[in-house]
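Continuing the batch. This is chain 6 of the set; chains 1 through 5 are on the previous pages. Same settings as before, nothing changed between runs. Recording input and output for traceability.
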Amino acid sequence: MKVLVLLGSSREGSVNKTLAEAALAELPVGATGEIFDGLAELPFYDDVLEANLPEAVARLRAAVTEADALILATPEYNGSVSAVLKNAIDWASRPYGNGSLAGKPALVLAASPSPNGAKWAREDLVKILKVAQAVPLEEHFGQPNAFDGIKDEHRSELGRLVSDLVAA
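Output for chain 6:
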């Protein structure tokens, strides 16, 4: 089982990167995972570019195609998903009905310094993934008060959801 992480934050010291790394640490023996590097290199989605696909887009689509499952981690910006992650989903969902996201099981994660754990971003991301024809787990994970670190009870829940993803 190969799991690919799409990380919606490229900020140094990102709490969402820390959360994604914690999720990868919960993968069972035999499963592998990596964080895709390069979302910030993607041009904004424009179907005109399909005729001469940028290398960064081809690399993203190939990585998503090769993965058996996805973990998506997003900060919450203005109550929703980060633009860089939404853009990556737009590229990976094309051509519609045959995009690299179609049928992929996905786990949605978000870390936030707020006590709600980026609830709105997680809900939006689940909706976006469903429209893009991925198969997000019904349950998603939000890390509240993220600057305080991941608590043991949260690691347990995260581990359970990663196991659910691998079993999906």
